[in-house]
Amino acid sequence: MSFKNPLEKIEDKFEMIQILDENGKIVDEDNVPDLSDDDLVELMKRMVYTRVLDQRSIALNRQGRLGFYAPTAGQEASQLGSHYALEKDDFILPAYRDVPQLIWHGLPLYQAFLFSRGHFHGNQMPDDVNALSPQIIIGAQITQAAGVAVGMKKKGKENVAITYTGDGGASQGDFYEGINFAGAYQAPAIFVVQNNQFAISVPVDKQSAANTISQKAAAAGIPGFLVDGMDVLAVYQVTKEARERAINGDGPTLIETMTYRYGPHTMAGDDPTRYRTDDMDDDWEKKDPIVRFRKYLEEKDLWSEDQENAVVEKAKEEIKAAVKKADKYDKMKVTDLMENMYEELPANLQEQMEEYKEKESK
Amino acid sequence: MAQMTMIQAITNALQTELKNDEDVLVFGEDVGQNGGVFRATEGLQEEFGEERVFDTPLAESGIIGMAVGMSTQGVRPVPEIQFFGFVFEAMDAVSGQAARFRYRSGGRWHAPITIRSPFGGGVHTPELHADSLEGLFAQQPGLKVVIPSGPYDAKGLLIQSIRDNDPVIFLEHMKLYRSFREEVPEEEYTLELGKAETKREGKDITLIAYGAMVHAALKAAEELEEENIQAEVIDLRTIAPIDVDTIIESVKKTSRAVVIQEAQRKAGIAASIVSEIQERAILHLEAPVLRVTAPDTVYPFSEAEEIWLPNHKDIVEKAKESINF
């Protein structure tokens, strides 16, 4: 009897899926996504735009013009490739680093900035944006995603719920409960774990004895895939197939994207030099999702420096306008908060409302 | 009209709302074919099908997290936590998530969830089955906490809780499940949340209680009457929000009050009510407002339950202390 063999067999099944390599070459012809040239260009535009947004957000934070911000550079392929596989009526349950997916799902930029500043309007998704605001408690969104998916199934909707967490999130009890519930009900959910190698400072090998996060799907009886999270084509394709499975009633999928955040955990004082080396940063930057996709598109004559500059300029202008709009937005009041606690104000809040109306009128 | 126990009234309320609103979903551990460990959901899966009344995997955080997510899809979840002590497994899902769902989305989403759960002492359960944890949830903004004291109230309050568009914690005292029957109309009716009921009128002292302690207070009132003390008994019915007006009105009349809770003493509902009374009616008082509570220990193993739990004698004693002050 061997105790080790079953585990070895499991890990063999979770080899990393890659379609586009670091040099922008297709390495898996059979699985190249069925995307038009326009789609490919759009994906590139979104990644470049989001990289600019990240750089500007960091700068604005340093100037004191933004609040809470979790940098996104390095994770564009994981975030935007998975999002590009969705439809407008699909439901997103993001973690705190997943603001880009919300923006591309329809959250206006000025609201993303208000979210960063701690104004409730930043959390108030427009009526046509099916999403929750970014989750702060690691893992809470995962059981909720199972619930959204079960609700969709009960209502006969042909949509999916997609949720995002990180490598640290996969250690939470809610991660196991969420994927297990979705599996038990065969609900149309997609669980994306962006494995950016560190949960703040704790490396992924300290989170678990499991060599991959994707293999944890096996315990819930659902498919799990390990994907090159710096390869936008691979992330898109796997998410697309997971979505089709879900819509067809075949249940949820877990996707682990191997990626890296170039910046700190958040802009609130994290110093990555305490837990990462320059060599590690350099190795991952060689895998950069935008660099490799640019090479691929240039080879196909779909992308040029001029096009890229145009996207950068557009992003900068829109960011400037959005900051202005956020600046002009009415400051949040305690009475706004009170109004959003219950459908009808209970007696205690009615009293307190009068008190704060008076305070706020001064 | 039919004579029902509280558990029958609860089943009847669930059945009423499952019939009225196809978006109502009832789920939890063993609630399906088994009809719940107390038979609160007896026959409901058979009548409404597995799509609407169903078992869940055994994970409380998953159950409430799922209910929160479902809320975005226009359903009205009625999950059960099998025993309220198990809610510790779901604290984030309840207080961190469901309670804040309306607020954190700026009103875009809300969570019309009714979490039903048995609680309360005196039935010799193992650890973490009987604890009175209502204070933890009454303190959490965004939740309502409802505790019926009998069959009639249970039906009307549960139907109203299910129809409420915000999360409600609906706590069912295990000792009341089958301890007595009451006239309960077969047809639907609702009782407003946040409204107390004066169960007995009196001019000398106000006894304020909820859940099983309402019955201890009523028994105490009977004993006090033998000594010519007329006690008014208020059943809070809802402990979040609290019907402060009814309490103050009564205290202004009687000038004395004892607040009773089965839960431990510190930082509790009773303490909160004492504060409301002294802030709003201190000049009407003839004596300090007193409390009858359990001591500040964890809930005891069952052999010590009887002595640990407050009872009508403790209430009589405190009432006399107030009268003789």
Molecular structure report:
The complex is a heterodimer of chains A (362) and B (325). Chain A is α/β, with parallel strands linked by helices and 362 residues long. Helices cover 47% and strands 9% of the residues of chain A. Chain A contains 14 helices and 7 strands. In chain A, the strands form 2 sheets. A 5-stranded parallel sheet of chain A has the order 1-2-3-7-6, with helices on both faces. A two-stranded antiparallel ribbon of chain A has the order 4-5. In chain A, a hairpin with a 2-residue loop joins β4 and β5. In chain A, α5 packs across α12. The termini of chain A are far apart. The model of chain A has no long low-confidence stretch (mean pLDDT 96). Chain B is of the alpha/beta class and 325 residues long. Chain B is 35% helix and 20% strand. In chain B, the strands form 4 sheets. Chain B has a 5-stranded mixed sheet with strand order 9-11-10-13-14, with helices on both faces. Chain B has a 4-stranded mixed sheet with strand order 5-7-6-12. Chain B has a 3-stranded parallel sheet with strand order 3-2-4, with helices on both faces. Chain B starts with a strand and ends with a helix. The model of chain B has no long low-confidence stretch (mean pLDDT 97).
The number of helical runs of chain B is 12
Largest interface: A-B, 44 and 44 residues
Structural class determined from secondary elements of chain B? alpha/beta
Instruction: Tell me the total number of β-strands of chain B.
Output: 14
Largest sheet of chain A: 5 strands, parallel
Outline type of chain A: globular
Give, in order, the helices and strands of chain B.
EHEHEHEHHEHEHEEEEHEEHEHEHH
Return residue spans of chain A where pLDDT drops below 50 for at least 5 consecutive residues. none
Strand order of the largest sheet of chain A: 1-2-3-7-6
Oligomer state of the chains in this structure: heterodimer
Please estimate the helix content of chain B. 25-40%
Order of helices and strands of chain A: HHHEHHHEHEEEHEHEHHHHH
Which structural category do the helix and sheet elements of chain A fall into? alpha/beta
* Low-confidence regions of chain B: none
Radius of gyration of chain A: 21 Å
As a whole number of angstroms, the C-alpha radius of gyration of chain B is 19 Å
Proportion in helices of chain A: 40-55%
Measured distance between first and last alpha carbons of chain A? 78 Å
